[in-house]
Amino acid sequence: MDEPIETPPTATPPQGEAKPPPKKPTKKPPKSDPAPAPDYVLSSSPHIRKAISIRRIMGEVLLALLPATAFGLYLFGPHALWVLSLCVAGSVATEVVCQRWAGTRVTISDGSAALTGLLLGMTLPPQAPWWICLIGAVVAIGLGKHVFGGLGYNPYNPALLGRVVLLISFPAQMTAYYSPGWWGVDAVTSATPLGLLQEARIRSMGLGEATQLSMSDAFFGFMPGSIGETSTLALLAGGLFLLWRRHITWDIPVAMLGTVAAGSALFWWIDPSRYMPPQFHLMTGGLMLAAFFMATDMVTSPLTTRGKLIFGFGCGLLTVIIRLWGGYAEAVSFAILLMNSAVPIIDKYTPPRLYGTGKPPAQGPKS
Amino acid sequence: MALTSLIQRFRSFVGGIHPPYHKDLTDHQTIRQLPLPERVILPLSQHIGTPATACVKVGDTVLTGQMIGAADGPVSAPVHATISGTVTAIGMYPHPSGREVQSVVIESDGADEWVALPKRDGIGGVDNDTLRGWIADAGVVGLGGATFPTRVKMSPPETAQLDTLVINGAECEPYLTADHRLMVEEAGRIAEGGALIARILGVGRVIVGIEDNKADATVCMEKALTRLDPVRSGRLDVTVAVVPTKYPQGGEKQLIAVLTGREIPSGGLPMDVGVVVHNVGTAAAVSDAVLLGRPLVERVVTVTGEGLAAPGNARVRLGTPARALIEAFGGGEQVGKVVFGGPMMGVAQFHMEVPVIKGTSGILVLPPEAVTLEDIRPCIRCSACIEVCPIGLLPNMISVCAEQLAFAESEQYHPFDCIECGCCSYVCPSYRPLVQMIRYAKTEVRSLKQKAPH
């Protein structure tokens, strides 16, 4: 046969030439007129849609953060509420300003700016001053999101970008942690477990006071730290909810947490007098918050399962390296931002398996 | 001779979606016989390929089954009068594809007087070329919607090594139950047609693929196949394959992969992996064409949707305007959208006078409240489209390229492998019209290639 035979698979008559997509579906008048002009909607297939939207996804992620947020407020008191509120309000306000300025539609109702604000607040110390919160919000939304074109175009996780800019610019305020307690005025300065470990290492004092942390306190979250990062239990609950709702997939958290566990276990096994066991690393610092809520950020993580596994592995590996030998006590923010830079190249080399190429999956009758 | 069960269960394919099916609106309704239409509009292009050439004039009287358009060239199909009456016009009329197409209009004389059908006494001594000719003369094309002339699919090149005929009864499109009802009510015609096609192709294996939401159809098909002579004598190996209900299970590429474990190479055809696929309706039409000498003048159509008071299935003369059907099934007042085909791949219509053609499997009437037009948001890289793509494409990347008019770049994401099933658009939380953008990219890449110097 001379011509290739086209056999589209199912029920559609030959489609006309495609209309340019950005054009919204239009109502067209009929060309000839055996009938009065109808008023039907014309649009390209498919004609049904799943009940899902950006707003719904963001709403459910906010819901998943509720246990950790509530626990942070319980642990650190009203000032923590003040910090979170400032971050959320600052982020939403920054988004309004950016979008007004750019002359685009204001899309704060989709909840993405509020989510960025909440995540930023959860990574700040409970006694953070008001200006830290606002600078963080402006940097996260302005520099982290809108300079790149807004939602969907940002290469870096905005909340983490905001946090890291703050950490580098204002190290004193960003590393001033307090013992859990309700009333900020009386709060006692206290380093985080990772801070203690870092200090001991720099002074060549072995593991120092970090060994005194009770693992059950760490699991429930009764320890100094950022507002939303201390409770492994609350974060796991939120993460499992997201997995169940399928807003995140298992690959990034499993690869990231698994790599941190394996890497820290290896060095703990080599020299337990210099390195802490893996359960300590899993439950301290921002790892749980990051593994379920930040590394999994759709916009800034790879597209396919293979890519996500590589990304999670990279995040975990960098976390271990920075925590064990780096100059900062906390590592996950840097680890994730560095891996965010690698996402385009990971995507390039991890496309999904194209039908008709390579080895097909097992098919055939069930026995 | 006693046979063991022909029914086997099969695994599913990668990707796909589970939309709300709404098949219960019509799947228990027997196929209705409607009063004859007063007027039919018969486009001369009801198939893929060269349009037929009109062979009647305005004013001619025609009988039902009389050829009014002759096939033009090897990839074409004739068109027959579907009622008896007078040709009142030949000209450009709206076609379900959205274009206007050369069509023949016939006003009914109310008599439905048929042409004399040829007498057929068995096909034992008839050679395959003659059978192919009978099928072509009857105007049979793929009734699953692709409308490819069936004769061409029955004439594989000498080099093709075919071993399997797949009869597609998956009917994975939501709402549609025309194939389902046909399998339940007229399984015998499908089975006969399947055996005929297998004989012409010279294949020894036939697999009928049916989704597991049509248990009654499975039983009926098994019964009908068991009665076939070649099956009783063991010359034909037949399986009724129960496949998981998942859209787009009825896609040729998916069904073949599920039933045979083979994948059609990119840009290839089912015959490249030894398989030919025909829809159940096509098999029934082949049986009529060969055993009864009856041309294709009617088909089963599901008329359905929440915009109708009494949805159902009907045997419809081709050329019947949509309006007549919609009114017969209790609709017409509250109409948001009229779709020819199913909700996933069907084409929205701007005109109630658009006629049913050979590829029309259903007419879906959605009420205004079911028609939503959402604002298109940027891609948030959630990868939902990638998870559901049954081909393994990156629909989001093709759409982003198309949006930026970067068509040459879009090609690295394999837009031409897209089967346009619509799963990606269905799941997109940003309401991006992904399939539409992929079609756009395909069109533009094709025209870029035509312009490029060779």
Write the layout of secondary structure elements.
The complex is a heterodimer of chains A (367) and B (454).
Chain A: H1 54-76, H2 78-102, H3 112-122, H4 130-143, H5 158-169, H6 171-174, H7 193-202, H8 215-220, H9 232-244, H10 251-270, H11 278-283, H12 287-294, H13 305-325, H14 332-349
Chain B: E1 7-9, E2 32-33, E3 39-43, E4 53-54, E5 61-62, E6 67-70, E7 79-80, E8 85-94, E9 100-108, H1 128-137, H2 150-153, E10 164-169, H3 178-185, H4 187-201, E11 205-211, H5 215-226, H6 229-232, E12 237-243, H7 252-260, E13 275-279, H8 280-292, E14 298-304, E15 312-317, H9 322-328, E16 337-340, E17 347-349, E18 362-366, H10 384-388, H11 395-403, H12 407-410, H13 423-427, H14 434-451
Parallel strand pairs in B: 1-12, 2-15, 10-11, 10-13, 11-12, 14-18
Antiparallel strand pairs in B: 3-9, 4-6, 5-8, 6-7, 8-9, 14-15, 16-17, 16-18
Helix pairs in contact in B: 3-5, 4-5, 4-8, 11-14
What does this structure look like?
- The complex is a heterodimer of chains A (367) and B (454).
- By secondary structure, chain A is mainly α.
- In chain A, 52% of the residues lie in helices and 0% in strands.
- Chain A contains 14 helices and no strands.
- The longest helix of chain A has 25 residues, at 78-102.
- Chain B is α/β, with parallel strands linked by helices.
- Chain B contains 14 helices and 18 strands.
- Chain B has helices at residues 128-137, 150-153, 178-185, 187-201, 215-226, 229-232, 252-260, 280-292, 322-328, 384-388, 395-403, 407-410, 423-427, 434-451, and strands at 7-9, 32-33, 39-43, 53-54, 61-62, 67-70, 79-80, 85-94, 100-108, 164-169, 205-211, 237-243, 275-279, 298-304, 312-317, 337-340, 347-349, 362-366.
- In chain B, helix 4 (187-201) crosses helix 8 (280-292).
- The longest helix of chain B has 18 residues, at 434-451.
- Chains A and B meet through helix 1 of A and strand 8, helix 7, strand 16, strand 17 and strand 18 of B.
